[in-house]
Amino acid sequence: MFKKVAAFTLATALILGVSTPQINFAEEGIVKKDKFDKEAYNSKEEVKLAKKLQKMSEKEIKKEQKSLSKQIKGLTDSELDRFMFNFVKDNYQSDEQMTENLKLLDIEFAKKKKGKDKQVSITGMNPADIDLSIFSYKRGTEGWYSIQSNWETFGGELSIGTLDLVSIEWDPNVGNYYTVAVPDDRITTKKDGTNRLNGIYLFNVRDAFFNFDSYAVVRVTPKKFNTKFHYATKYTHTFSVTDTSSTGSSSFQFTNSGFTAGYSYSVTKQTGIDDWDIFDDNDVTF
Question: Which of 67, 69, 196, 220 has most Cβ atoms within 10 angstroms of its Cβ?
């Protein structure tokens, strides 16, 4: 999967005469401060397992079903979240095939099919530069469902604004909030859970990297059975419209007109900062 890198982007921008903000890469965590140890990450057992399963056919999985199921069962909740993120990310199997393969390993999986419009922008990010998806999964006889919002980036923002915002939203009439989880990647952090009983949890996304692929997870327990449970995610990307980059959190307000019958949010406009949203939704029957 092609990713835009800093050197290529800045060099191209300079050639085309595009103005770029003054960015201290070390300060922004791109070079030293938060250097991503890709080798250590890829050596994690759950990441290796996810990449292995991406390449396996249903027939191959059946041959190793007992061993693979045991590995899945032995994962902690956070390891399972990481496994699911890596299994879905860059997976060229159909959603139906992923669902069937995971079912063999006692994971109930729900993801809605959608098209992908991927492109790389030279002068800054646009909505097609982020592939946002949301899906749910339930392992074995566990009493909760995990709702994971994933985003994969195909470009980097030169005009950095405030921290991006992402929500996980759900119908609180059908599912009760149970708990929340974020990875330890220094990209995604919890922002606001004060309205979790109204079906929304907000997260910060630090987009000062040229690759800020990450995820967030909310776990819910069924309130009603034999009922469709609707959930959604909204990602708000902020960027500077001046010659300097910005820092700090995005200001927002909750709204009670969410897609899922629960709450949603809107970003408060700030001087010199603009934004755009992308959205995805899904459902599962409890």
Answer: 220
Task: Round the average pLDDT of the chain to a whole number and report it.
Answer: 82
* Parallel/antiparallel/unpaired status of strands 228-240 and 164-170: antiparallel
Angle, CA 53 vertex, CA 48 and CA 59 arms, to 5°? 150
User: Is a pLDDT exceeding 80 seen at residue 58?
Assistant: yes
Residue type, 163: L
Q: How many residues does the chain have?
A: 286
Indicate yes or no: pTM above 0.70. Answer: yes
Number of neighbours of residue 58 by Cβ within 10 angstroms: 12
Residue from 41, 232, 10 nearest 133 by CA: 232
Dihedral of CA atoms 240, 246, 247, 249 in degrees, nearest 10, equals -40
Measured between alpha carbons, how far is 282 from 232 in angstroms, rounded to an integer? Answer: 6
245 vs 159, residue with greater confidence: 159
Q: Is the pLDDT of residue 132 over 60?
A: yes
User: What pLDDT does residue 186 have?
Assistant: 86
Helix (H, G, I), strand (E, B) or coil at 135: strand
| 75/108 Cα distance (integer angstroms) | 16
> What is the structure's pLDDT at 39?
86
> What stretch of H or E contains 276?
strand 273-285
- Residue ranges and CATH numbers for the domains of the chain are 110-285 (2.60.40)
Can you spell out the DSSP letters for 46-66? HHHHHHHHHT--HHHHHHTHH
Q: C-alpha 209: how far from its chain's center?
A: 15
Around Cβ 183, how many Cβ atoms within 10 Å?
A: 17
Q: How far is CA 106 from the centre of its chain?
A: 23
Q: What distance in Å separates the CA atoms of residue 28 and residue 236, rounded to the nearest whole number? A: 20
CB atoms near residue 33 (< 10 Å): 12
